Amino acid sequence: MIRRVQPDYVITHWKSSFHKDHANTYAIVKDAVLMTELEAVKTEHPPFRGLMYYAENWEDDEGYKPYLFVNASRGCEHWTKAIRAYQMVRGSVSPFYYFDYYTALIHMRGAQIGTACAETLDVEDGQKRLRMNSLSSER
């Protein structure tokens, strides 16, 4: 599926979680992305050359370090409305204050980069290399 769709990126759970399904999802997705990158694995679709990112999640925070901050201000209002639709957020699944936590988090991450709202992503340590042609303010 990844080879057929050729997404620009894949976002999944971080590797350290107290939820087995989150940790297993990390491992399965990482293996799937690796297999789709390999030329030796032959399918009817070309190898995948996208990027893999890990989303911030309070249940997966051991070792997670925000690396990329994405301005989410444009969609913040829609996000707030959408997240309220989930039973888990409305309190019928768990006593954890999901709505309060994630609303505060998205605004706090935004404040860290000077926007109203932001989401963070992490990458594997080996991918943490910022390439610049110079230190000038032009990007």
Counting DSSP H or I runs of 4 or more residues, the number of helices is: 5
CA gyration radius, whole angstroms: 17 Å
Mean pLDDT rating = 91
Instruction: Count every beta strand, where a strand is a DSSP E run of 2 or more residues.
Output: 4
Q: Assign the structural class, choosing from mainly alpha, mainly beta, alpha/beta, alpha+beta, or little secondary structure.
A: alpha+beta
Write down the overall geometry: globular
Largest sheet, strands/sense/barrel: 4 strands, mixed
Along the chain, the helix and strand elements come as: HEHEEHHHE
Strand order of the largest sheet: 1-2-4-3
Q: Give the strand content.
A: 5-15%
Task: Determine the N-to-C terminus distance.
Answer: 34 Å
Structural domains: how many:
2
Low-confidence stretches are none
Proportion of residues in helical segments: 25-40%
